[in-house]
């Protein structure tokens, strides 16, 4: 890396990327404080908003290979933390190729931290292997086999990240993100996806709905998630050897989210505010109706609403990451989740904007 490493954060106008950027810029000391942070944004308005933080903001089209290459080489980017459109392979491909060229031109090691979807490691997401530890070095091979036959898992971006990173000489890390909650701290979007989507639908329908089958997917508070990214980035900047490439999964899992219990607490909170007609949740009449009103793609609605997934984080704790939020704190915060939607829901968000 250069004497002052250059780190590019994508998705900084989004919930996760914006909160991560705020977290990194708040560091008072340590290797992250000494790094030069760049932010990627899409629109003029987003660039203007993020620029208020006093950092370099790059307006770059991540789907355009030449645009990404020019941005990386011109700004001598050594590390990319990708939190925007992370299930779309073209963006990841463009950034890894650009980092590969940066390494070839400069001789400097380059690193790519990818954000993926934890739901893909549940039975409903097409994962048939049961419990999975992020330290299992066979994850990529298993995903590669599954991607050949399961339409929900196509295209298999995780496989592309691992294989292309190896081919380009770029060290890669993969952070599968589950249900995220809490108020964001970024300049643009401060709301998560799942609970706000259900809250909006409930306000419109005057009823809180749950799925016919309960689910207990993994979950994490936004502050614990940004702390995990920060822990990985800090180790990279310190040039310490940590799990990477096919061994570089870091499950961002703090606890479970008992969906039926969450929906009941949501109904109680919204009823107390006069937002819904009853203090209890009813069952969605169909998957199609649920997808229509929540805005989630129908192909993923079962995995989003009823998944479980037994993901065991090993690599995160191995590098010193320990989440602070637990299930009880999460359930006790549902009332604030409702209030956050009422306070902050000024920007239309879709599932695809957040991934």
Give an overview in words.
- This protein is α/β, with parallel strands linked by helices and 355 residues long.
- The protein folds into 2 domains: 6-180 and 219-247, Rossmann fold; 186-217 and 255-308 and 324-354, no CATH class.
- Helices cover 43% and strands 14% of the residues.
- The chain has helices at 15-25, 31-34, 44-51, 65-74, 89-106, 139-147, 157-168, 194-205, 222-237, 259-272, 287-294, 301-306, 315-318, 327-332, 334-344, 351-354; strands at residues 6-9, 36-41, 56-59, 79-82, 111-117, 132-133, 171-177, 179-181, 209-210, 218-221, 255-256, 282-283, 311-312.
- It has a 6-stranded parallel sheet, with helices on both faces.
- Strand 4, helix 5 (89-106) and strand 5 form a beta-alpha-beta unit.
- Helix 1 crosses helix 9 (222-237).
- The radius of gyration is 20 Å and the shape is globular.
- It starts with 5 loop residues before the first strand and ends with a helix.
């Amino acid at each position: 890396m250069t004497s002052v490493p250059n780190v590019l954060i994508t998705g900084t106008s989004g919930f996760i990327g914006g909160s991560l950027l705020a977290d990194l810029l708040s560091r008072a000391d340590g290797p992250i404080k000494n790094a030069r942070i760049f932010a990627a944004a899409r629109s003029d308005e987003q660039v203007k908003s993020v620029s208020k933080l006093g950092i370099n903001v790059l307006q770059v089209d991540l789907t355009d290979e030449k645009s990404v290459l020019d941005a990386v080489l011109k700004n001598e980017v050594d590390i990319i933390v990708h939190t925007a459109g992370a299930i779309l392979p073209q963006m990841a491909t463009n950034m890894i190729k650009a980092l590969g060229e940066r390494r070839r031109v400069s001789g400097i090691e380059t690193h790519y931290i990818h954000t993926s979807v934890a739901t893909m490691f549940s039975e409903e997401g097409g994962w048939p292997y049961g419990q999975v530890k992020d330290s299992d070095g066979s994850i990529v091979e298993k995903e590669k086999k599954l991607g050949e036959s399961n339409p929900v898992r196509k295209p298999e971006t995780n496989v592309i990240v691992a294989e292309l990173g190896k081919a380009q000489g770029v060290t890669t890390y993969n952070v599968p993100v589950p249900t995220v909650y809490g108020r964001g701290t970024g300049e643009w979007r401060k709301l998560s996806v799942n609970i706000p989507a259900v809250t909006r639908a409930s306000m419109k329908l005057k009823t809180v709905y749950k799925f016919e089958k309960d689910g207990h997917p993994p979950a994490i508070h936004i502050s614990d998630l940004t702390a995990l990214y920060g822990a990985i980035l800090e180790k990279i900047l310190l040039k310490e050897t940590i799990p990477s490439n096919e061994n570089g999964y870091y499950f961002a899992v703090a606890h479970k989210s008992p969906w039926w219990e969450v929906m009941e607490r949501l109904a109680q909170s919204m009823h107390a505010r006069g937002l819904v007609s009853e203090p209890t949740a009813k069952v969605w009449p169909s998957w199609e109706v649920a997808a229509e009103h929540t805005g989630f793609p129908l192909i993923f609605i079962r995995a989003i609403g009823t998944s479980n997934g037994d993901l065991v984080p090993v690599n995160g704790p191995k590098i010193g990451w320990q989440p602070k939020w637990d299930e009880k704190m999460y359930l006790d915060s549902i009332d604030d989740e409702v209030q956050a939607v009422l306070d902050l829901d000024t920007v239309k968000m879709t599932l695809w904007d957040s991934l």
